[in-house]
């Protein structure tokens, strides 16, 4: 084995230990990555309002691109099988987000889609293996995922409305107006003080109402749904059971659900 191959194996082992290990160093590393990721997401949310700041905006843009590229490269190396890693839908979403960062001028009109990074972060195993170690596969995880889906939807629609109608329509003069329109449409309040013009504006309003209401209902259901734990029955394969279940409610098989103090 060549010296380069040995170095590659050592690098893969090191990254795998950091991204998937349980040592205090690995946990601190993942918390740091998530903290930077949240700052990048905050930049994505604020980007529509600061993209006219010239050099400062582009410096922040390429700094975010550098972080995302390094993080994705490290995860790919830690995973080992690049082809299997590329088959994950979340990876392709992150690759698209990276493309909008690397080519901010060409893909300026699609910049609002960067906020989808919030959804990919909260729905990733990496996040729950770190922050949600005590809550993995529980009600807390379901609520967090439902909330992130709703927030991502709100900011994606807000960014689209702002980039498409701000300055071109009297009703939308700033980012707050776009956010206000999104929330009032999502909640079907419809005060009528801000409306989007034309057929496309009406279609966008309908899509916002239907998509937003669906995600909001999903969030409410995850909050009100009786608490379940994920533990697969060895006989019938049923995965969701009551926390104190002794027998599988589908086949009657004796269960041995670990008690995590829930």
Automatic annotation (TrEMBL):
Record's keyword annotation contains Cell membrane: no
Keyword rRNA-binding appears in the UniProt entry: no
InterPro entries in alphabetical order: K_chnl_dom, K_chnl_Slo-like, K_chnl_volt-dep_EAG/ELK/ERG
Annotated membrane topology: Multi-pass membrane protein
GO MF annotation list: voltage-gated potassium channel activity
UniProt GO cellular component terms: membrane
Subcellular location: Membrane
Signal peptide positions (record): none
Family matches, as Pfam families: Ion_trans_2 (PF07885)
Keywords carried by this UniProt record: Ion channel, Ion transport, Membrane, Potassium, Potassium channel, Potassium transport, Transmembrane, Transmembrane helix, Transport
Domain of life the protein comes from: Bacteria
Segments passing through the bilayer: 29-50, 90-108, 143-165, 199-220
Domain Potassium channel: 151-223
PANTHER family in alphabetical order: CALCIUM-ACTIVATED POTASSIUM CHANNEL ALPHA CHAIN (PTHR10027), SLOWPOKE 2, ISOFORM D (PTHR10027:SF10)
Protein name stated in the entry: Ion transporter
């Amino acid at each position: 084995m060549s010296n380069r191959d040995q170095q590659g194996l050592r690098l893969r082992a090191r990254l795998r230990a950091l991204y998937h290990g349980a040592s205090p160093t690995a946990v601190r590393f993942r918390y740091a990555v998530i903290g930077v990721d949240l700052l990048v997401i905050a930049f994505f949310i604020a980007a529509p309002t600061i993209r006219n700041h010239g050099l400062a905006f582009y410096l922040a843009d390429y700094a975010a691109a550098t972080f995302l590229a390094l993080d994705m490269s490290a995860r790919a190396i830690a995973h080992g099988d690049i082809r299997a890693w590329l088959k994950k839908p979340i990876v392709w979403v992150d690759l698209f987000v990276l493309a909008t960062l690397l080519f901010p001028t060409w893909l300026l009109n699609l910049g609002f889609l960067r906020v989808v990074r919030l959804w990919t972060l909260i729905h990733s195993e990496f996040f729950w293996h770190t922050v949600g170690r005590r809550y993995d596969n529980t009600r807390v995880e379901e609520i967090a995922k439902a909330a992130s889906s709703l927030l991502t939807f709100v900011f994606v629609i807000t960014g689209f409305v702002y980039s498409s109608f701000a300055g071109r329509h009297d009703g939308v003069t700033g980012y707050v107006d776009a956010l206000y329109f999104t929330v009032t449409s999502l909640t079907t309040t419809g005060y009528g003080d801000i409306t989007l013009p034309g057929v496309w504006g009406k279609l966008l309003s309908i899509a916002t109402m239907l998509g937003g209401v669906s995600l909001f209902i999903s969030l409410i259901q995850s909050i009100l749904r009786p608490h379940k734990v994920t533990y697969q029955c060895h006989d019938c394969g049923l995965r969701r059971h009551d926390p104190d279940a002794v027998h599988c409610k589908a086949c009657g098989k004796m269960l041995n659900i670990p008690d995590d103090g829930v």
